[in-house]
Amino acid sequence: MKLLIIEDEQEVQDDLIEFLKGEKFLCEAVSTASIAKEKVYMHDYDAIILDIGLPDGSGLEVLEYLKKINKDTGVIILSARGSIDDKISGLNLGADDYLTKPFDFNELNARIKSIIRRKHFHGSNNIDFGDIVINTDSHEVNVNNQLIILTQKEYQLLLFLISNENRVITKESIVEHLWGDDTDMFDSFDFIYSHIKNLRKKIVNAGGNDYLSTIYGVGYKFQRT
Ligand code: CA
User: Fold this and answer.
1) Residue 193 is part of a domain; what is its CATH number?
2) N or C: at which end does the chain have fewer Cβ atoms within 10 angstroms?
């Protein structure tokens, strides 16, 4: 699951990244409203954490922009203590939740998970896909009632494939989703093949169906058999 953190206080941003990476989220972070708009235009995130007070404007502009480009990403607003107006405006503009600074990280984690559950998985902690069951709280993956051990990248890859069911996804989009801003350091995206191969092998070895097909020269497709 991929998050965008929009927060200009460097220390808070660093703490958020460290904590949320520990919770197995993929994180990207920006400090201004203008870069945030570029990011949400180019990429899809599973949830956004949005500070209201940004150096080049209000976080509310980012909410307006999301609406304008028709992106229904879950947003949690971080607002300063006492700024009731920001909260109300934010919720009116389509934010899903808000927290007042200073906030408890575990509380934030719980709210993010609940937004992702509501938006993606109809309120459930478990994602069922054929004979695969993923618990998004414990990050356990069962295939045919057998627990399989995935690396963090394989886990994220599996979630990405499932959330793009029946769509052809390019190697490039997989790498961009999993590596974010680090994508530039790769000369070629062929290395993704070994992650795909390992994930596929673990599922099939546990007696699961092979949901993945290779679309030659384009990428992959994940679909129910
Ligand atoms: Ca701020």
Assistant:
1) 1.10.10.10
2) C
Domain boundary among 83, 103, 120: 120
Determine the distance separating the centroid of ligand 1 and the alpha carbon of 13, expressed in angstroms. Answer: 10
Q: Give distance in angstroms: CA of 90 to centre of ligand 1.
A: 15
Domain of 35, in residue numbers: 2-120
pLDDT: which is higher, 189 or 13: 13
Q: How many whole angstroms from 1 Cα to the centroid of ligand 1?
A: 24
Candidates 23, 2, 3, 20; CA nearest to 12 is 20
Tokens of 147: 């627990």
pLDDT tens sequence across 77-117: 998 877 778 888 888 888 999 999 889 999 999 999 999 88
Residue 113 CA, ligand 1 centroid: distance in Å: 23
Q: How far is the CA of 35 from the centre of ligand 1 (A)?
A: 15
Q: Please count the structural domains in the chain.
A: 2
- Amino acid, res. 111: R
Task: Tokens 């575990």: give the residue.
Answer: 106
